[in-house]
Amino acid sequence: MLPLEVLQEAAAEMTNARSSGQSIMEMSHRSDDFTPIIENTERLLRGILNIPDNYRVLFLQGGGMLQFSMVPINFAGKDSLPIAALNGTLQKTATYIDTGVWASKAAAEAKKYISINIAASSKDKNYTYIPNAPLPQKTDAYYYICFNNTIFGTKWDTLPQTGSVPLVADVSSGILSEPLDVSKFGLILAGAQKNLGPAGCTIVIIRDDLVGNAPPWTPVMLDYATHVKEKSLFNTPPVWC
User: Fold this and answer.
1) pLDDT, tens digit, for every residue of 34-55?
2) What's the mean pLDDT in 109-138?
3) Backbone angles phi, psi at 118, to 5 degrees
């Protein structure tokens, strides 16, 4: 639940946000009125999570579900093709650990763009435990986990050891509920509706060196580099502040 004082402030500013004479739902996302709102939101998030300077913070649309596509596309490499077009030709791989509904959905979507390896699963006991996580493959572009599986009540207490392979985690259910060492991840994603605010915004925190690796066929809205360059304002953001 959002704190009552937050809802009251939003209601009070519905027709006159920050003395601008307009609602936040009416103002241009490129205006001087909106800029401090998104900048302050990023500043607060960086402070709470102690996000290192070499990580970008993105405020995106599409929920966690869209990230199930964006992650494999952006990590597959500039020379990659969608997996369906390769006729079995080997390309970069990704390791997924299947710990529940959302990890399973993420893996199913990723198969369209990259060769994935489901290295461990707890499906045999209805996802009631976190399986032992094997080391990544040498060809892995990333290693994917769902950090907190709320449907089944499980959570990663010890992160997989992935070495130089970037660890990607869906932290939607746990973000800001406890300290999180961002530096241990290459990318984390989180739908805002769990712990941060109303539905409609997705947070992506990505390390600098992992930006700009999407293949040329990537739709412009699905390329992390697009949103890094435009500071999350490539198009009109969802109303979430």
Assistant:
1) 888 889 999 999 999 999 999 9
2) 95
3) -85, 95
Q: In whole angstroms, give the CA distance from residue 189 to residue 164.
A: 19
Sequence-separated (6 or more) residues with CB below 8 Å from residue 217: 81, 82
List Cβ neighbours of 103 (8 Å cut-off, separation of 6 or more). Answer: 96, 97, 144, 145, 146, 149, 170
DSSP-assigned states of every residue in 9-30: HHHHTSSSGGGSSS-TTTS-TT
CB count in 10 Å sphere of residue 161: 12
What's the pLDDT score for residue 241?
Answer: 44
Residue 25 is predicted with a pLDDT of 77
pLDDT for res 104: 97
Rounded distance, CA 70 to CA 74, Å? 6
117 forms bridges with which residues in the sheet?
95
Neighbours of 90 (CB within 10 A): 8
Eight-class DSSP state of 69: H
| Active centre residues (catalytic) | 102, 170, 194
SS3 category, 204: strand
Task: Pull the structure tokens for residue 180.
Answer: 């999180």
The type of residue at 139 is T
Phi and psi angles of residue 231, each rounded to the nearest 5 degrees, phi first: 55, 45
Q: Give the burial class of 117: count Cβ atoms within 10 A of its Cβ; 0-12 exposed, 13-18 middle, 19 or more buried.
A: middle
One-letter amino acid at 214 equals A
